[in-house]
Each structure stands twice: as C-alpha cells, then as structure tokens.
C-alpha cells in the first residue's frame, strides 16, 4: 500500500513537472506504470533526480536496474515501450546494420548464381556434355537459394532485421519472426542439398570401390539429416503460427527448445563438413596429376575449409539465438553467417567446373596436355622424346640423307592428343588400385596424326 501511494505521488509530481518543463517529463509520464515504479525505485537508490536527465541517462547502474526490473515486472510489449521511451529521452542514436546486411546478401547471391549459370551453361552450350547428379543438385540448391535471398532482402530486412527491436511497431516484429521462420526452414534444406552436390561430385571422380561405398553411405546420412531437420523445423511449434506469435508472451502454444535445434544442426553440419573434407584428403597421396592440377585441387579444398570455418563462426552467433530480448538486432549475425556459408559453399561446389573453363581459356598457362616430339633415327636406332614423354603436334616428316657410302633415314613423327572437357574433369583424380580397370572402361580419346615422307 505504501508503494502504491508513493507511486501515485510520483505520477502527480511528474505531471506537474511535465507541464512545467515540457516534452522530456511528458515522455517519462507516458511510461507504463510498471516501468514508472522501476524508475522510481532505481532513482531513489542512485545519486540522480528525475529532473536531471543527463545524470539518469549516463548512470549505467541506474539504466541496468530499470531495464532488469522492467523485464521482470512488465510484459514484453511494455518493456519494449519503456526501452523506446528511455532511448528517445536520452537521445541515443538509432543503430542500423540494414545496408551492410542487404549488400552482403545481394552481392553473394548474385555471385553464386553467376557461378552456377556459367557452370551449367558451359556444359550444355560449349562442351555439350550431359549434366551429372552433382549438376542437378547444384541447380536445385540455386533454385531454393534465390527465393531465400529475396525473402531475406524484402521480408527480413524490411521488417526490422538489423535494427533494435524496441524501435519497431509490434506488427512489424511479428512479420519479421514469420520471415525468419521461413529462412530457418529454407536454410536446413539448402545446406543438405549443397552437401549432396559435393558428394555426388566425389562419387563421380573417385573410382575406387571402397571410396564409393563410403561416399554413398555419406549421401544416405546427409539425406536423412536434411529431411529430419526440415520436418522438425517446420513443426517445432504447436500450432505452427506460435513460432512468430509467442514473442509477446500473449499467445498460447508450445515449442521445442529452439536453441537446442539450432545448435544440434550446426554441430552435425560442421562434423559432416569435416568428414567430407577427410574423404578427398585421404586420397590425396594417390593423386597422379601435373602440379598445375594439384594446385587447382588444393585451392578447391582450401575453399571447402573456409566454408567449415564460416560454419564455426555461425555457431558462435547461436549462443543467444532463442534467448535474446533484441532478436532483430542479435539475429542479424545468424542471418549474415548463414548467407555467407551457403553462397560460398555454392561457389566452392562450382570450382572444378571453373577449372575446366579456365583451362580452355588459358591452355598455355593452365593446360595439362603435355607437348613433346618424337624423333627416331633409323640406322643408329636412337630416339628422342620430350620431357614428359607426351605426343603432340599435327605433322610428321621423313628425310633420307647420304653421308659417304651410308644412307640414314631421319624420321620425325608428331601427334596431337585431344581431350574433351568431360574426360578432363574425370581425369581430375587418378587413383591407384582400381585405376587400371576403370581406365579400360573410359572412352578412348581421339588421336590425330598426319605425316609426309620425302625421299
């Protein structure tokens, strides 16, 4: 009763102060009753007075005390209103990471789409080779990733992502959480599809039967993992709409531990990334490639490692994922790292195809066809080969000359070995063991040879 009387006198005093001093005191009067009580208690325990706005705004202990009290005594909406009013009174500038987030989202989305379009367009229009399962899954990943980029830009950022929650209207907060729900489900699906594209690429380039069995088992695990998390994320709340209405604490419903769901997915995804890196790395000692190709393979693996690092950084942003009192600001990190992870992963999956295109554009720098000549001198039975023992060229000559009483025939023969792009990609990794049996099944390459004999 004593507290109520004190609060009543405080309100009357504030009304009088508001009429005398203007908007600042008027803003204080507009605070919810629960927040006024918190403010009155905090001011009593501090060296400040309500009339000294500078002292109230700069006293960190007082501010923290009022905020903690409001979170405990007021509803969510009343707490946000209190925070908005106090930040306005203290002239705290409005923070925004909207422009940075939209720039990262759109830029990476466009870059990853360009990589996929170049990859598919080159195979269909230039090399005219059939698309593999890895190509189909990268297309599906792009088709689900483009809508996600649009949803993040139009849905999330235009409804408060990157701003403080207390600066937003309540209906806008609800729309933000609804779009974030769609982003979460889509992220789980995209991540699994991206890993499938990489795994089917491994299945195509590694011929060893024991490695293929490991890859197939990993594909089965990834499919199971992806479907499970998509279904669980869709139905994590009952009713489903409770996901985006429970933020205000005024609606009935139940949800599973959303924070645990995010952590579990991140932990499994990182573990799977490490396992998928271990598969090609375990075969690295068996590679029989020119050093230029080895550099290209090393670069692809390096990019894959970067994706794993990004996944770990994203994991750190999940610490306050479901417990934040400022979700539109705090979940900017989760959204940003998820965008980077998926789009960089798509670029990584396209690196092998980019290598083939670069080899075609810059054959002298990145090409792997060995150039050499073959010379045989009949009579002395000597041979000359190029450094790599390769055969190249298009013409050959045979000459006969006389030296004294002996005749010697000089015969020079040159070849051109032509590889199509599909075979070049298949030859990215040559393994021991099953290579010979697999090599017999490969399509024979075309050899062109022409010669001219002068007697």
From TrEMBL:
<feature type="disulfide bond">
    <location>
        <begin position="57"/>
        <end position="90"/>
    </location>
</feature>
<comment type="similarity">
    <text>Belongs to the SAT4 family.</text>
</comment>
<dbReference type="Pfam" id="PF20684">
    <property type="entry name" value="Fung_rhodopsin"/>
</dbReference>
<feature type="disulfide bond">
    <location>
        <begin position="34"/>
        <end position="74"/>
    </location>
</feature>
<dbReference type="InterPro" id="IPR052337">
    <property type="entry name" value="SAT4-like"/>
</dbReference>
<protein>
    <recommendedName>
        <fullName>CFEM domain-containing protein</fullName>
    </recommendedName>
</protein>
<feature type="region of interest" description="Disordered">
    <location>
        <begin position="433"/>
        <end position="455"/>
    </location>
</feature>
<keyword id="KW-0472">Membrane</keyword>
<feature type="signal peptide">
    <location>
        <begin position="1"/>
        <end position="20"/>
    </location>
</feature>
<keyword id="KW-0812">Transmembrane</keyword>
<feature type="disulfide bond">
    <location>
        <begin position="48"/>
        <end position="55"/>
    </location>
</feature>
<keyword id="KW-0964">Secreted</keyword>
<feature type="disulfide bond">
    <location>
        <begin position="38"/>
        <end position="69"/>
    </location>
</feature>
<dbReference type="GO" id="GO:0098552">
    <property type="term" value="C:side of membrane"/>
</dbReference>
<keyword id="KW-0336">GPI-anchor</keyword>
<feature type="transmembrane region" description="Helical">
    <location>
        <begin position="299"/>
        <end position="322"/>
    </location>
</feature>
<comment type="similarity">
    <text>Belongs to the RBT5 family.</text>
</comment>
<feature type="transmembrane region" description="Helical">
    <location>
        <begin position="137"/>
        <end position="159"/>
    </location>
</feature>
<feature type="region of interest" description="Disordered">
    <location>
        <begin position="377"/>
        <end position="404"/>
    </location>
</feature>
<feature type="transmembrane region" description="Helical">
    <location>
        <begin position="106"/>
        <end position="125"/>
    </location>
</feature>
<feature type="transmembrane region" description="Helical">
    <location>
        <begin position="256"/>
        <end position="278"/>
    </location>
</feature>
<feature type="transmembrane region" description="Helical">
    <location>
        <begin position="214"/>
        <end position="236"/>
    </location>
</feature>
<dbReference type="InterPro" id="IPR008427">
    <property type="entry name" value="Extracellular_membr_CFEM_dom"/>
</dbReference>
<keyword id="KW-0325">Glycoprotein</keyword>
<keyword id="KW-0732">Signal</keyword>
<keyword id="KW-0449">Lipoprotein</keyword>
<keyword id="KW-1015">Disulfide bond</keyword>
<feature type="compositionally biased region" description="Polar residues">
    <location>
        <begin position="394"/>
        <end position="404"/>
    </location>
</feature>
<feature type="domain" description="CFEM">
    <location>
        <begin position="6"/>
        <end position="114"/>
    </location>
</feature>
<dbReference type="Pfam" id="PF05730">
    <property type="entry name" value="CFEM"/>
</dbReference>
<feature type="transmembrane region" description="Helical">
    <location>
        <begin position="179"/>
        <end position="202"/>
    </location>
</feature>
<feature type="transmembrane region" description="Helical">
    <location>
        <begin position="342"/>
        <end position="362"/>
    </location>
</feature>
<dbReference type="InterPro" id="IPR049326">
    <property type="entry name" value="Rhodopsin_dom_fungi"/>
</dbReference>
<dbReference type="GO" id="GO:0005576">
    <property type="term" value="C:extracellular region"/>
</dbReference>
<keyword id="KW-1133">Transmembrane helix</keyword>
């Amino acid at each position: 009763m004593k507290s109520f009387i004190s609060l009543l006198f405080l309100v009357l005093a504030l009304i009088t102060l508001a009429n005398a001093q203007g908007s600042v005191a008027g803003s204080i009067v507009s605070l919810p009753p629960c927040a006024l009580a918190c403010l009155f208690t905090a001011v009593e325990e501090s060296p400040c007075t309500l009339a000294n706005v500078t002292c109230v705004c700069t006293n960190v202990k007082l501010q923290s005390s009022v905020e903690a009290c409001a979170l405990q005594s007021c509803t969510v909406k009343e707490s946000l209103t209190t925070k908005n009013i106090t930040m306005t009174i203290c002239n705290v500038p409005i923070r925004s990471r909207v422009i940075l987030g939209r720039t990262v989202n759109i830029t990476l989305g466009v870059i990853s789409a360009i990589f996929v379009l170049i990859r598919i367009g080159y195979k269909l229009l230039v090399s005219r080779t059939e698309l593999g399962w890895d190509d189909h899954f990268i297309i599906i990943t792009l088709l689900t990733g483009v809508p996600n980029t649009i949803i993040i830009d139009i849905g999330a950022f235009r409804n408060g992502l990157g701003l403080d929650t207390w600066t937003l209207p309540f209906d806008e907060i609800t729309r933000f959480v609804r779009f974030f729900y769609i982003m979460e489900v889509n992220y789980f699906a995209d991540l699994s599809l991206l890993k499938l594209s990489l795994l089917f690429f491994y299945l195509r380039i590694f011929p060893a039967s024991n490695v293929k069995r490991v890859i197939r088992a990993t594909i089965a695990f990834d499919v199971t993992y992806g479907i499970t998390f998509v279904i669980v994320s869709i139905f994590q709340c009952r009713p489903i709409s409770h996901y985006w209405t429970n933020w205000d604490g005024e609606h009935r419903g139940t949800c599973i531990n959303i924070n645990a769901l995010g952590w579990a997915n991140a932990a499994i995804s990182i573990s799977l990334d490490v396992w998928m890196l271990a598969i090609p790395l375990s075969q690295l000692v068996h590679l029989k490639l020119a050093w230029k190709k080895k550099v290209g393979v090393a670069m692809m693996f390096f990019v894959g490692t970067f994706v794993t690092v990004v996944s770990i950084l994203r994991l750190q942003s999940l610490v306050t994922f479901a417990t934040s009192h400022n979700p539109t600001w705090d979940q900017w990190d989760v959204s940003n790292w998820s965008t980077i992870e998926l789009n960089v992963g798509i670029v990584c999956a396209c690196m092998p195809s980019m290598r083939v295109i670069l080899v075609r554009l810059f054959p002298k720098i990145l090409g792997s066809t060995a150039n050499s000549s073959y010379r045989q001198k009949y009579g002395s039975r000597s041979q000359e080969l190029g450094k790599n023992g390769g055969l190249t060229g298009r013409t050959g000559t045979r000459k006969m000359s006389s030296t004294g009483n002996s005749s010697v025939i000089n015969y020079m023969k040159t070849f051109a070995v032509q590889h199509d792009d599909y075979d070049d990609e298949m030859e990215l990794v040559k393994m021991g063991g099953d290579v010979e049996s697999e090599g017999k099944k490969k399509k024979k390459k075309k050899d062109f040879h022409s010669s001219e004999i002068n007697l």
